[in-house]
Specification:
This protein is α/β, with parallel strands linked by helices and 578 residues long. 37% of the residues lie in helices and 21% in strands. The two termini are 25 Å apart.
Amino acid sequence: MAIAKAREREVLESVYSMIALVFVLVACVELCGAATVIDVYRLIQYDLAGVPFGSRLANLNHHGGSSFTPGADLSRTVVIVPIREVNINFIREYIAQKQPLGGLLFLLPQKFSFQSKDGTGGDDQDSIVEHTRSILVELEQLLIHANIPYPVYFAFEDDNIDAVLADIKRHDVSGQPATATTGGFKLVVSAPEPKKLASPTVTNIQGWLPGLKTDGDSNQLPTIVIVAPYDTFGAAPALAVGSDSSGSGVVALLEIARLFSILYSNPKTRGRYNLLFGLTSGGPYNYNGTHKWLRSLDQRLRESIDYAICLNSIGSWDTDLWVHVSKPPENAYIKQIFEGFSNIAEEMGLKVGLKHKKINISNPRVAWEHEQFSRLRVTAATISGLSVAPELLESTGGLADTRQFVKETSIVKGVKIVAESLAFYLIWCLTPFCSSMQRHIYSHQGKNIQIFADDSSLSIDPYYIRSWLRLLSQTPRVAPFISKNDPFIMALKKELADHTVEMNVQHEVLDGIFTFYDFTRAKLNIYQVASVTFDLLLLLVLGSYLIVLFSFLVITTRGLDDLISLFRRPPSRKVKTA
């Protein structure tokens, strides 16, 4: 009896092993079908005055689709859409109607990658790129101003994702879109619930070049400020490099600081003005960093400022540059700034226009950085390639603002106009209200003197501009996601310290009406999965094979009676009574 029970126990253990093997094989049907893994970048998630915007979810685990099929339930489908195929009006209506969707994956051309080194490929190719860029700009504004209750990601096109999308399109055209019953591709992003960023910091960096000392302290000399914001904002924070806005302004400021550090190193060419250079953060958020930086300045220093020049988006203009001001054009300083720029530009065959826009003190919203100066009654102007003031979170360095759309020659021309105008004003202008016509006094043989002539030791360095533009175009700089010890911040500090006598750093908490959430990039796993029907059929085949194999082994080793005994009901035990 004991031997029979032992045999029965061995057989049952074999049965359990076979069943476990079946489950392992069935589970491997999906897991062994991995197609590819790609980097994806999540649509920004933020609150504006408590109102939610952007993508509110991050976790993704649905089948892929290639179109918004009318009448279909897409609540468990991730629609993959190349940017060039986006229908803006349809996307806008779909989001506005709050229709259910498992997720969205937008595919960006490699041309828009900050790692791309491809140039343009002729007029036809250029027109296609510009058309795609205009779609991307419009789409980005739509997404960042919408409340989207499902995950939205961006990725760059490559051979792997293109092959997956082509296969998905074939399924969709055949009338069998991917579902749990039909199979297809499953897109998986394993992500925790996004959390609020607690007390994000903004870092302002300033450099000081003292003017020529006279009988008094150099701190009592008048001061001119050159400032530019260095941070960006975009639909995908991990991709917002902002080559033009605000990269071009940063590059121009650093080159101007380099030139004047050489000029000021010699007492004979040192101006009678202090120069204060500022790299500010929080630009897209109402220039919050500039506001804090100005408030932190010593009152005597702030009162010594004659005027400030703010550099913004000067990397893509051709012949027309704009000076934006808040004070009336008749103001003595405004007139002097504009005439100085205009005269230099005219000599270069260029044109500088003037745009006057009053500020509304009761409205906290500012469109230009110089408006933060104007609120403190400091004369300031913004020099920019933009002719119209941008709206909130517009033209702040988004997905379409990459290196290939910025011209080094535009930055060089902008630096030339600003530097030459300042040099004349700082070195030879003996009074704050000297006429710009005095520049002609310092002419030689009918030609105006150029301080930063191309063939001089003070010439503008295109290589310096190119190297810094390359770095900025490869560095996402959305303020809440940059720590105060970020390598990029350290690089700016070192560079400004090299070109100024004194460098200071200010760390402040980004306040106001913005709240941001973490998790900006992830890995997307794409699995090729079989249908449930195929899984059941495979399970049936495997089960039948294992049953036959098991029966054969039991019969050949133990006999038919042992096999039958496995399915026979054991006899019941009766308790014997006395």
